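Dear Dr. V.,

Thank you for agreeing to look over these. As mentioned in my earlier message, I'm a first-year student in the group and I'm still getting used to reading structure tokens, so any feedback on how I've presented them would be very welcome. I ran two proteins. I've put each sequence directly above its structure. The first is here:
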Amino acid sequence: MKVGVLALGDTGWYNFNPSPFARPGVRPYLYPMITLLRTDSSNPDYRALIVDLDKDLAIRDGEVYHEFYAQYNKSDDIKYVLVAYQGDVPVGCGAIKHYEGDIIEVKRMYTLATQRGKGIAAQVLKELEQWAIELNYAKAIMETGVKMPEAIGLYTKNNYVIIPNYGQYAGMPDSLCFEKVLK
């Protein structure tokens, strides 16, 4: 079994150490290699993952709130999309979209339910942040729902801080917004 993370970036493949905290004599749980592909919103694997994401959000948000949020989650014009693969199988995704000035918005973060807890979303998020830096963005913002504890944990663990709800999310009690300074 191959172990590690291989990520395709603009400058080639990156190999990440899967277990920097491994102790001698202790065998860490090994996950199959994850490949991260930079693409855009026309990628069919991304589109399939988004269908799953929207189904999950409809259940968590409820009908009324899901209709409200769905209008802001259109993927047709997103230029910067990342798809995570385990072998040839797409298992997660995320995207970044220009918000204003030097601020990028993180969008459409999702990992298949069967693949959660393996660090895939953290790898996707870190690669999206790196991509944003390469595009000269200084800050990332994002919105998630209060009923998304996995997402809240991911963002706080990756040094995002809670901010007042911005833009269309202002005044929405089920929204929680975050930001992180990238540079």
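The second protein is here, in the same arrangement:
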Amino acid sequence: MDMEFVLLTFMVMLLLMSLVWRFLRRDTRTQKTIPYLRHISLLNQNEHHCFKAIKQAAGDRYDVHCKVCLSSIITADKHISKSLWSSAPQSLREHTVDFLLTDVENSQIACVIELDDNKPYRPRKARDILSQEVLRNAKVPYIRLDTMPAYDVEEIARSIEALLKPVQQASLIDESAEALRIVIEPDQSSRRTKL
């Protein structure tokens, strides 16, 4: 009788251990949903300090956005081969920029600001190099800021102004050229016909 009790107890324990083992080692491929977790903050502490400084430097003229996907800023030229064009959006969706300035009046893209948090002994990430090259090709103004314990708002404002002043002047020239072209074109209703 004692032996039967010990054997029965042993079998129950073995069964319980087996169930616990299966529960702990369940296959995640059979799960129907992925357990997502919320980040505590969108920005780390240094990015947050930089964000506040950029926001002050941008003033009332620009809105400051953070962690913006490259595909929201640029797109691939549709005149390239179909295979290249179809792969470009995926590549752009995989990369984000740290900060984006847009005109507060019309939401036009003004410039991208990247925070360079690399240490001198560590090479720049391939992601940073790709983002910079893609932005340069798309002619999106680009500023790279070094990571600092404190950010000089005036210096950031001067950098933004120096970068965007030539762009603003060029857009004024384009707009006046467009207006001039419209003025020069003859009005369809004022054409005279020969008799």
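From my reading of the second output: The two ends are 127 Å apart (CA to CA). The beta strands are 62-69, 96-103, 109-116, 142-146. Does that match how you would interpret it?

Kind regards,
E.
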